Amino acid sequence: xxxxxxxxxxxxxxxxxxxxxxxxxxxxxxxxxxxxxxxxxxxxxxxxxxxxxxxxxxxxxxxxxxxxxxxxxxxxxxxxxxxxxxxxxxxxxxxxxxxxxxxxxxxxxxxxxxxxxx
Length: 118
Fold this sequence. Notes:
- By secondary structure, the chain is an alpha/beta fold.
- The chain is built from four helices and five strands; from the N terminus they run E-E-H-E-H-E-H-E-H.
- It is globular, with a radius of gyration of 13 Å.
- It starts with a strand and ends with a helix.
């Protein structure tokens, strides 16, 4: 299956919407989209994986690497995810404690607004 990527700016956030499968074959495309966003100066990222059908360890590695990169610059990376199967992966790996997991882009924005980070 293919990886579908769209990006949009919703100041101060860069929203990266992902669909399809994030695996060893497609993860480099996701990494490239994230690096392009960071290189363009976007350090507040929201990765929306609502349309993702499959996520493997390579995809998780891309997300963790991106989180480290944005945090080093004082930024953040939040994930929009409501699929029980994907949420279970974040829980099993302990990444549910590392990433801000939200049920919508609006909820991710609101979490930063209430924390005074937006």
